[in-house]
Design a protein that fits this description.
The chain is an alpha/beta fold and 283 residues long. It has helices at residues 19-24, 26-29, 47-54, 69-72, 117-125, 139-145, 157-160, 172-179, 198-217, 219-227, 235-245, 248-251, 254-270; strands spanning 9-15, 38-44, 61-65, 76-78, 84-86, 92-95, 108-111, 130-133, 150-153, 167-171, 185-193.
Length: 283
Protein backbone atom coordinates (compact mmCIF):
# COMPACT_ATOMS: atom_id res chain seq x y z
CA UNK A 1 0.00 0.00 0.00
CA UNK A 2 1.24 3.48 -0.77
CA UNK A 3 0.28 6.90 0.54
CA UNK A 4 -1.74 7.57 -2.62
CA UNK A 5 -3.87 4.48 -1.96
CA UNK A 6 -4.96 5.74 1.45
CA UNK A 7 -6.43 8.91 2.88
CA UNK A 8 -3.37 9.25 5.08
CA UNK A 9 -0.64 11.77 4.43
CA UNK A 10 2.92 10.73 3.71
CA UNK A 11 5.35 10.95 6.60
CA UNK A 12 8.99 10.23 5.80
CA UNK A 13 11.37 9.02 8.50
CA UNK A 14 15.07 8.98 7.72
CA UNK A 15 17.29 6.67 9.74
CA UNK A 16 20.40 4.57 9.37
CA UNK A 17 20.39 0.92 8.27
CA UNK A 18 22.08 -0.10 11.52
CA UNK A 19 21.01 -2.51 14.26
CA UNK A 20 20.33 0.18 16.88
CA UNK A 21 18.13 2.27 14.58
CA UNK A 22 16.40 -0.86 13.28
CA UNK A 23 15.57 -1.91 16.84
CA UNK A 24 14.34 1.59 17.67
CA UNK A 25 12.07 1.75 14.63
CA UNK A 26 10.97 -1.91 14.64
CA UNK A 27 7.41 -1.21 15.75
CA UNK A 28 7.02 1.79 13.44
CA UNK A 29 8.49 -0.15 10.51
CA UNK A 30 6.17 -3.10 10.99
CA UNK A 31 3.01 -1.10 11.68
CA UNK A 32 2.73 -2.10 15.32
CA UNK A 33 2.94 1.57 16.25
CA UNK A 34 1.50 4.29 14.03
CA UNK A 35 1.40 8.06 13.74
CA UNK A 36 -2.33 8.88 13.51
CA UNK A 37 -3.32 10.20 10.10
CA UNK A 38 -0.01 9.41 8.43
CA UNK A 39 1.41 6.73 6.17
CA UNK A 40 5.04 6.18 7.20
CA UNK A 41 7.76 5.73 4.63
CA UNK A 42 11.16 4.75 5.99
CA UNK A 43 14.23 6.10 4.19
CA UNK A 44 17.33 4.12 5.18
CA UNK A 45 20.59 5.98 4.51
CA UNK A 46 23.95 6.43 6.21
CA UNK A 47 24.10 9.14 8.85
CA UNK A 48 26.17 11.59 6.80
CA UNK A 49 23.66 11.43 3.94
CA UNK A 50 20.89 12.06 6.47
CA UNK A 51 22.80 15.05 7.84
CA UNK A 52 22.95 16.59 4.39
CA UNK A 53 19.28 15.86 3.67
CA UNK A 54 18.30 17.47 6.96
CA UNK A 55 20.01 20.66 5.87
CA UNK A 56 17.45 20.80 3.06
CA UNK A 57 14.56 19.82 5.35
CA UNK A 58 13.75 16.82 3.16
CA UNK A 59 12.25 14.41 5.71
CA UNK A 60 9.53 15.10 8.24
CA UNK A 61 11.55 13.27 10.88
CA UNK A 62 15.16 12.20 10.71
CA UNK A 63 18.11 10.83 12.59
CA UNK A 64 21.00 13.28 12.55
CA UNK A 65 24.39 13.68 14.16
CA UNK A 66 24.53 15.94 17.19
CA UNK A 67 27.26 17.83 15.32
CA UNK A 68 24.85 18.61 12.48
CA UNK A 69 21.99 19.91 14.59
CA UNK A 70 23.16 23.56 14.87
CA UNK A 71 23.02 23.77 11.07
CA UNK A 72 19.42 22.56 10.92
CA UNK A 73 17.96 23.96 14.14
CA UNK A 74 15.90 26.49 12.18
CA UNK A 75 14.17 23.58 10.42
CA UNK A 76 14.07 20.84 13.05
CA UNK A 77 13.36 20.42 16.75
CA UNK A 78 15.34 17.96 18.86
CA UNK A 79 13.35 15.13 20.38
CA UNK A 80 13.87 13.94 23.95
CA UNK A 81 13.31 10.45 22.55
CA UNK A 82 15.56 8.63 20.10
CA UNK A 83 19.02 9.91 21.02
CA UNK A 84 22.06 7.65 20.78
CA UNK A 85 24.25 8.34 23.79
CA UNK A 86 27.41 6.68 25.03
CA UNK A 87 27.96 5.95 28.71
CA UNK A 88 31.75 5.68 28.90
CA UNK A 89 32.01 4.61 25.27
CA UNK A 90 31.77 6.31 21.89
CA UNK A 91 33.68 6.74 18.62
CA UNK A 92 37.06 5.02 18.77
CA UNK A 93 40.31 6.18 17.17
CA UNK A 94 42.16 3.15 15.81
CA UNK A 95 45.60 2.55 14.29
CA UNK A 96 47.70 -0.41 13.26
CA UNK A 97 50.25 0.16 16.03
CA UNK A 98 50.23 1.80 19.47
CA UNK A 99 50.31 5.60 19.37
CA UNK A 100 48.67 8.62 21.01
CA UNK A 101 46.43 11.47 19.91
CA UNK A 102 49.31 13.90 20.44
CA UNK A 103 51.60 11.78 18.23
CA UNK A 104 48.97 11.93 15.48
CA UNK A 105 49.16 15.74 15.27
CA UNK A 106 49.28 16.75 11.61
CA UNK A 107 48.70 13.18 10.44
CA UNK A 108 46.08 11.90 8.01
CA UNK A 109 42.99 10.80 9.94
CA UNK A 110 40.00 9.03 8.39
CA UNK A 111 36.73 10.66 9.47
CA UNK A 112 33.28 9.08 8.75
CA UNK A 113 31.72 12.34 7.54
CA UNK A 114 32.12 16.10 7.81
CA UNK A 115 29.05 16.49 10.03
CA UNK A 116 29.42 13.39 12.18
CA UNK A 117 29.83 13.87 15.91
CA UNK A 118 32.94 11.70 15.64
CA UNK A 119 34.53 14.48 13.56
CA UNK A 120 33.57 17.17 16.06
CA UNK A 121 34.96 15.13 18.97
CA UNK A 122 38.27 14.62 17.17
CA UNK A 123 38.54 18.36 16.60
CA UNK A 124 37.75 19.04 20.25
CA UNK A 125 40.06 16.48 21.84
CA UNK A 126 42.99 16.08 19.44
CA UNK A 127 45.65 18.37 17.95
CA UNK A 128 45.29 19.69 14.40
CA UNK A 129 45.17 16.94 11.79
CA UNK A 130 44.66 16.33 8.10
CA UNK A 131 41.06 15.26 7.61
CA UNK A 132 40.33 12.47 5.12
CA UNK A 133 36.63 11.80 4.59
CA UNK A 134 36.00 8.05 4.26
CA UNK A 135 32.67 6.16 4.37
CA UNK A 136 32.33 4.66 7.86
CA UNK A 137 32.43 1.07 6.60
CA UNK A 138 35.68 1.66 4.69
CA UNK A 139 37.72 3.26 7.47
CA UNK A 140 39.35 0.05 8.67
CA UNK A 141 40.52 -0.71 5.13
CA UNK A 142 41.90 2.82 4.79
CA UNK A 143 43.88 2.43 8.02
CA UNK A 144 45.06 -1.08 7.16
CA UNK A 145 46.29 -0.02 3.72
CA UNK A 146 48.25 2.92 5.07
CA UNK A 147 46.16 5.44 3.15
CA UNK A 148 45.62 7.18 6.50
CA UNK A 149 47.58 7.09 9.74
CA UNK A 150 44.53 6.46 11.91
CA UNK A 151 40.76 6.48 11.69
CA UNK A 152 37.68 7.21 13.80
CA UNK A 153 35.26 4.30 13.77
CA UNK A 154 31.57 4.34 14.63
CA UNK A 155 28.73 1.80 14.65
CA UNK A 156 29.54 -1.86 15.27
CA UNK A 157 33.21 -1.33 14.38
CA UNK A 158 33.58 -0.09 17.95
CA UNK A 159 33.14 -3.71 19.04
CA UNK A 160 35.09 -5.51 16.31
CA UNK A 161 38.24 -3.44 15.68
CA UNK A 162 40.48 -5.52 17.97
CA UNK A 163 39.46 -8.74 16.22
CA UNK A 164 40.41 -7.03 12.96
CA UNK A 165 43.95 -6.46 14.24
CA UNK A 166 43.73 -2.77 15.19
CA UNK A 167 44.71 -1.04 18.41
CA UNK A 168 42.76 1.63 20.24
CA UNK A 169 44.36 5.04 20.35
CA UNK A 170 41.47 6.66 22.22
CA UNK A 171 37.80 6.21 22.98
CA UNK A 172 36.09 9.59 22.96
CA UNK A 173 33.36 8.24 25.21
CA UNK A 174 35.93 7.50 27.92
CA UNK A 175 37.50 10.97 27.58
CA UNK A 176 34.10 12.67 27.62
CA UNK A 177 32.98 10.79 30.73
CA UNK A 178 36.10 11.85 32.63
CA UNK A 179 35.86 15.49 31.57
CA UNK A 180 32.12 15.92 32.19
CA UNK A 181 31.84 14.07 35.51
CA UNK A 182 29.86 11.22 33.99
CA UNK A 183 27.45 12.90 31.59
CA UNK A 184 26.29 10.73 28.68
CA UNK A 185 27.95 11.49 25.35
CA UNK A 186 25.37 12.71 22.80
CA UNK A 187 26.18 11.25 19.40
CA UNK A 188 23.00 10.89 17.36
CA UNK A 189 19.64 12.61 17.69
CA UNK A 190 16.18 12.25 16.27
CA UNK A 191 14.64 15.51 15.08
CA UNK A 192 11.22 16.46 13.77
CA UNK A 193 10.45 19.25 11.34
CA UNK A 194 9.14 22.41 12.99
CA UNK A 195 6.63 23.23 10.27
CA UNK A 196 4.51 20.20 11.20
CA UNK A 197 3.15 22.15 14.14
CA UNK A 198 2.98 21.27 17.86
CA UNK A 199 0.10 18.79 17.67
CA UNK A 200 1.70 16.59 15.03
CA UNK A 201 5.12 16.92 16.64
CA UNK A 202 3.65 15.68 19.92
CA UNK A 203 2.09 12.65 18.17
CA UNK A 204 5.43 11.87 16.50
CA UNK A 205 7.25 11.99 19.83
CA UNK A 206 4.67 9.67 21.39
CA UNK A 207 4.95 7.23 18.47
CA UNK A 208 8.75 7.08 18.58
CA UNK A 209 8.79 6.55 22.34
CA UNK A 210 6.15 3.86 21.89
CA UNK A 211 8.20 2.14 19.20
CA UNK A 212 11.29 1.96 21.41
CA UNK A 213 9.28 0.68 24.36
CA UNK A 214 7.59 -1.91 22.13
CA UNK A 215 11.03 -3.12 21.04
CA UNK A 216 12.06 -3.79 24.62
CA UNK A 217 8.71 -5.37 25.46
CA UNK A 218 9.23 -7.74 22.49
CA UNK A 219 13.01 -7.83 22.66
CA UNK A 220 13.65 -11.17 21.01
CA UNK A 221 11.64 -10.29 17.92
CA UNK A 222 13.04 -6.76 17.76
CA UNK A 223 16.62 -8.01 18.10
CA UNK A 224 16.08 -10.54 15.34
CA UNK A 225 14.71 -7.79 13.12
CA UNK A 226 17.69 -5.57 13.97
CA UNK A 227 20.22 -8.31 13.25
CA UNK A 228 19.57 -8.17 9.51
CA UNK A 229 21.22 -4.73 9.55
CA UNK A 230 24.29 -5.86 11.48
CA UNK A 231 26.55 -6.32 8.44
CA UNK A 232 27.34 -9.89 9.40
CA UNK A 233 28.22 -9.46 13.07
CA UNK A 234 27.42 -12.31 15.45
CA UNK A 235 24.12 -12.38 17.33
CA UNK A 236 25.71 -11.62 20.71
CA UNK A 237 27.59 -8.62 19.32
CA UNK A 238 24.46 -7.38 17.60
CA UNK A 239 22.52 -7.54 20.86
CA UNK A 240 25.35 -5.87 22.78
CA UNK A 241 25.59 -3.04 20.27
CA UNK A 242 21.84 -2.42 20.34
CA UNK A 243 21.81 -2.27 24.14
CA UNK A 244 24.71 0.19 24.07
CA UNK A 245 22.87 2.73 21.94
CA UNK A 246 19.19 2.00 22.62
CA UNK A 247 19.05 2.58 26.35
CA UNK A 248 17.06 4.46 28.97
CA UNK A 249 18.73 7.59 27.56
CA UNK A 250 17.13 6.74 24.21
CA UNK A 251 13.63 6.43 25.63
CA UNK A 252 14.09 9.83 27.27
CA UNK A 253 17.44 11.62 27.42
CA UNK A 254 16.25 13.42 30.57
CA UNK A 255 18.02 16.29 32.25
CA UNK A 256 21.49 14.65 32.03
CA UNK A 257 21.11 14.21 28.27
CA UNK A 258 19.92 17.76 27.76
CA UNK A 259 22.81 19.10 29.83
CA UNK A 260 25.23 16.91 27.90
CA UNK A 261 24.04 18.24 24.56
CA UNK A 262 24.34 21.83 25.78
CA UNK A 263 27.84 21.02 27.08
CA UNK A 264 28.91 19.63 23.71
CA UNK A 265 27.87 22.83 21.95
CA UNK A 266 29.52 24.98 24.61
CA UNK A 267 32.79 23.13 24.01
CA UNK A 268 32.44 23.61 20.26
CA UNK A 269 31.87 27.35 20.76
CA UNK A 270 34.82 27.67 23.15
CA UNK A 271 37.15 26.05 20.62
CA UNK A 272 35.89 28.15 17.72
CA UNK A 273 34.12 25.36 15.82
CA UNK A 274 30.65 26.86 16.34
CA UNK A 275 29.68 30.51 16.34
CA UNK A 276 26.91 30.11 18.92
CA UNK A 277 24.98 27.24 20.52
CA UNK A 278 21.69 26.34 18.82
CA UNK A 279 18.30 26.67 20.51
CA UNK A 280 17.52 23.56 22.48
CA UNK A 281 13.73 23.56 22.72
CA UNK A 282 13.19 19.85 23.21
CA UNK A 283 9.97 18.00 22.49
Amino acid sequence: MTATETTERLFRIGHSPDPDDAFMFYALSTGRVKIPGYFIEHRLEDIETLNHRAMQGEYEMTAISAHAYPSVAHLYQVMNTGASMGRGYGPVVIATRPTTLDALAGKRIAIPGEWTTAHLLYKIYAPAFEKVLVPFDQIMDAVRSGRVDAGVIIHEGQLTYADEGFVKVADFGEIWERETDGLPLPLGLDAVRRDLGPDVIREVAIALSGSIRYGYEHEEDAMEYARQYGRGIAKDLNNRFVRMYVSDDTIDMGEPGRRALARLYEMAVQRGFLAAPPPLDFV
